[in-house]
Amino acid sequence: MILYWTTFLTSIIVLTVLCGFCWSQDSAVKPQLDTEPVNVTSVEGGEAILPCSVANLGSNQVSWRGPRGIIISMGKKILTSEKNRFQVFNPYQPEWNLHISKVRSSDTGYYTCSIPNIPQVKSVFLLVFVPPSIVDSELQDSYEVLEGTDFSITCQARGFPKPTVKWLKIIKSELQPLLEGETLVIPSITKSDSGNYMCAASNEIKPNAAHTIKITITYPPKVTIRTKQISQSLGKETILSCMVESYPLATIIWSFGDKELQNSWKYNIITYTEPNGLRLETQLKILAIEMSDDGTYQCLATNSHGSDEGTTVLQVQMPTWTTPIPTISTTTETPPTSPVPTSQTQRSTRNNEIFVTDASSGNGGEYVNAHSQYIIAVLLIALLANL
């Protein structure tokens, strides 16, 4: 009887020892995750490595899930449709890191590393920084704005952290700060406001972003006449000048009275454009001036925003002629008893006629109508004594 109880107790002890050993072995091989939460940062377009360390994995498999619980991988097998961006690396036994390439801002969120049927979970938060960029869907490269109107433009930027937007004006390759904010407002815009402007966006992530626009001011023509009155002699030529500043460039018409002047043997019109492309100089050349050219000339400039005109008065002058009276000498003797007749020259104002009475040798020479500058008569009188 004693032997029976001894054998029974011995069996119980052996079983207890064996069970304890089994329990300890089972506890030793159970997978263990490093469950300490981790934050990982990356930049859009770069890559991110999400760590997961598992001890005693055995025959179990590690699973990764992304934001919103989407399954990414099981073991090393990628289950998401974006297989080219996700990969599980197991460089040595404990590590089961998830690599993400070409990171997107939408990748931001919580990722979990776990083992099926084991309650332990490794949580990794991925924060994706985004460099600034200009939302230029509504931005143009150039604007034409009518002088005197209000102008505003908005430059929106995206990125994380939220970018700061600044407006600058480019003056001789230098940047002049204007304001901070997305919207640039220029009230009652003037010609001096024309030029190149830059919208610059920046945050803590490089590179910065910028968009340049060109503002051109449009305005109606403004005519400037250098010489408002000019005098010239008959038969000569003269040049009338007219300066026009406008944008867009104006169409220029020269006129005299109700007659529009064109290039011809009488008139020559030449137009020059200044290097800045905003100002024109037009010249009207009048050839062989006549008395009928005396009067007022108009320079009319017109573009899509209006018109302006200037005038120049041309005064035609009659030249002053000085004609020496020719003398006649003779060796013929003149009878002393014959007196030298006297003569008189009369001019009729009715028909610009000249009458010479009692003509003598002293009346010989050329007679000129100074009003029309044309010779109306040539009178050669040679009275020789005793002929």
TrEMBL record:
Q: Name one GO cellular component term.
A: neuron projection
Q: Which InterPro entries match?
A: Ig-like_dom (IPR007110), Ig-like_dom_sf (IPR036179), Ig-like_fold (IPR013783), Ig_I-set (IPR013098), Ig_sub (IPR003599), Ig_sub2 (IPR003598), Ig_V-set (IPR013106), Neural/epithelial_adhesion (IPR051170)
Signal peptide (residue range): 1-24
Renumbered to this chain, region (Disordered) spans 327-362
Q: Does the keyword DNA repair apply?
A: no
UniProt superkingdom: Eukaryota
Where is the sequence biased in composition, kind Low complexity? 327-349
> Any idea what this protein is called?
Ig-like domain-containing protein
Keywords, A to Z? Disulfide bond, Immunoglobulin domain, Repeat, Signal
UniProt cross-references to SUPFAM superfamilies, sorted A to Z: Immunoglobulin
What are the Polar residues biased-composition ranges?
A: 351-361
Pfam families (UniProt xref):
I-set, Ig_3, V-set
